[in-house]
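Why show two proteins at once? Because comparison is the fastest way to build intuition. When a single record is shown, students tend to memorize it. When two are placed side by side, the eye starts asking what differs. So, the first record is below.
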Amino acid sequence: MVPRLGIPRGRPFALLAWSQFLGFAVVVFVWSGFLLTLSLDPDYTAGELLDHLQAWRETGVLYPALGALPPLRVLNYPPLVFIMARAVAWCGASALVAGRLVNALGLIGLLAAVAWWVRARGARGAALAGTIGLLGASFPLLSGSGQFHIELWAAAGTVWGFALLAHSSSWRGAVLGGLALALACFAKQTQVVPAVLALAWTWWHHRRVAAAATAAFSMAGLTGMAGIGACFGAEAWRHLVTYTVGTYSAVNLGGQLLSHVAPWLILLAFTARIAWSETGQPMRDPAIWYWLGALVWSLSSARVGANSSYFLDLHLATVICAGPRIFGQSSSRSRLWGAFVALQIFGADIGAASALTVNLLRAKRTEAELPSLCARVRGEPLVLAEEAGMMRACGRPALIHPFIMASLARQGKWDPVPFERALRAGQYPLVLLPFNPRDPAMDIQANRWTQPELLAFRSARVVEAVPTGRWVARW
């Protein structure tokens, strides 16, 4: 028996569903369209991904051996999205445009997967539109939609895998589901967690397709791993395994939960209520497995440097579980739930759109002042910068990706002393920073640079403000 927990049906609620869908579409197109006019993405990680792609095109090496001196960069992600982006760039697009186009295809694939699954779960018409539109309340999805990111492809593979396994009665559908789950792992290796959950669900509740799905997933995984080793060598596995482990902070976890779980708290409670009140054994529902796994896995955002993408799977699973009930069921006893959920959606919509607006305004200012900034670094032989995307926008390679290098230094996996010594000696005569190095370092800067590096910046002979709100330290 399906619990009757949704907002009451009727013309006003159909209008609400379609309004949510149209609002989502408008935000995605405005945000993505505006970013296409910029020469750099606002996100810090997007700049690093761009630098990895461009460096691969320039040097032929995607996973470089890590030494004592620049270039100092580590790629913690599998190569799938980069291979696709390089193929697009080979057709004549710039690296930045190629990355954005591939990411746009990932978004289309993800939306298609969500739509297919919720339709298979019974959503039609306004209920289907409203469920898709509910993603307009997800900052992780909206923020990543216009930039060079990898997680949309990862999530698309995961959702397609779950959906195909949930609604396939033949070995062909099971094989496609297993392949989709493997594809997700080669976009982002942490997707192995929901992949294992999906396969475990088949063995527990859908054994008819379990063997075919597991075999497809395993064969694709082994083939892909062999391909990575053959194409990129053993160094790739050092980047993907040895250099991936990070440091953790309860304060960081609290900040991430406050930013990306609190705006969805009522929706999460509504989903939990659906699972709890399901009289027909809720754990038979693969969407609930996906949701519970994503809920627990979101605690990994305690990792220092975690961002909104850590919550993308949780938002997607919540939409898939709750969206059809919110916009498709009728109950005279659910009006209070309906009011709370509607307020939550409205608040999350406003919050996500406001955050994107702030990012757009900041990016617009940076773009306007970028030519002046680039002119200052054009004649310098060596320029260190915190933001890899900024350097690529100025036509320069990034000599260091500071966050990952500082993290590796704290874990004892990279010795920063030779680099710190060279920095103090003035071998890098100009450093471009998004903060005044004379001021006490904030947490974000303390996580992106080692303490000796920050002290070296502070002791530079000249520190001056430059366009785009950045600072330059000179020796």
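Second record. Ask yourself what differs from the first in the token line.
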Amino acid sequence: MVYINHNFGFRVFFTLAIISILFTNPFLRFPYDMFYHLLEINQFYITTDIPTDRMLWHFIWAKIFYLFGIDNTELFLRANIIHISQTYIAFFSVFFFAKVAIRNIFKQVGNNEQNYLALWSTIIWFSIYATFSMYYHQVWNMWYSVNYQITLPLFWYILALTIILLFEKKIFKTKLLILVQIIIFSFFIIIIHAMEFLYYLMYLSVLIILFINKRNIKYILGVTIGTTLFVAIFLGESLKYERYFSSTETIMQMLRDINFCGEKLLEGLNRAQYSINELIYLSLFALGIMLLDIILKKYNKDAINTKMTILLFISSLFVLIPLVKYIAGTFAVITSMYVVNRVYYSSSLFLVLPVVVYYFISRYSNKYMILKLNIIMVILILGIYFVSKKTNFFNNNYYKNIQSMKNSFYRDRVGFHLNNINIQEILKKAELYEKHNQTGKPIMFFARTDISLVLEYIHLKNVYKGYRKDIKADPNYDYKKAFSEASVNNNEFNNILFELPENLPGYLPYH
């Protein structure tokens, strides 16, 4: 009876989490990169040539929208569909990884316990990683739900599949299916955003070190394949790095570059002031206490997989990579100094708190384990939230993370600053200009940047393209100056300076 109640409780908890995602909104402050991606998708809407680079993500979404007849006039509907879909992909990928990892760390954990631990880990994943840009502090999902970096959740998915393939007993057909998925998603990640495959190789390397033995030649094969792919990605496409290995002088240059990049990252490029929060340090502290307890009290090896626990410990420390000068500098040389801050997201730290809590509960008491787990997790997360809110040790970062998640349920806080009424007012204004056009020339509108976007992509009007550089919006665009210059030099169109409709909200780029 207790089992049934726990199972029912999890189903309710899980269902509420799933339903809540439907009510979240994508982050669409203009002109952040989300708009670049939305407009790029439109470029592929009717094309048939399949791109071979990260544009493949845009192509796939364009074909999905083409299939269902969702054209660019539904720009914000597209954004919502991508946001909801990719948030679900992230949720299920992280949940799946957490469940697989937990059942391989604990040898005697029941299915209900696995489910609760995985769900808590997933909630923490959504809340623990964040950064700041321009004017907004947002959690990872708010920055990247409308973005090709869906590769991060997919990395967790193939890592879970890899653990199953290597350590769990499955029939041959199941293992073959798992291997095919790993290969397919690996190449997708490599093409779309290869940095997440570097994370996979980091984990694979640790697995090789911990588990390699004479009986398991498959691990050697795995790391060989991984290394080959690594060379193909980072050396095949960026041969500039080979200069470091051509002479002693260039090796010294590499060391100087590592030192320089490391210093720059520690000066602020690692974004530690926005990314590191109270929950990260609590998790690291809790993990240390757990390992100390295992070492001193020699915890029953039949209950916990020591090597998998070590894997959790090492991979959790990946969160410190951007904070250590020479390690951060090395990553900057391999990739780029401006993306090292993303290595925070490779850490498995989101598993730690549920794992540690369950470890100590199971270590000292087997009664009411799930109830205790849930109560303790609620107390810890709420406690960290209020500590973060009231203190300023870490720039109130975890409090800001939770606020970011809360704000996702309010369109006016995260969505496009012009609502549907404003967008219709812009259309009425444009149609009024067209009605009074007596020149016989086609109209070209010169409008504020955000209005230009609405006119061109939602209402399909002809606007002066100077409001964007290539496909990205130009935040410094001066439409009145552009109109004055065009009025002198351009007689092909009837140039219209688009006057702002009444009650239209003001606009500042990125606000």
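One difference worth noting in the second protein: The beta strands are 130-133, 136-139, 443-446, 468-469, 472-473, 494-497.
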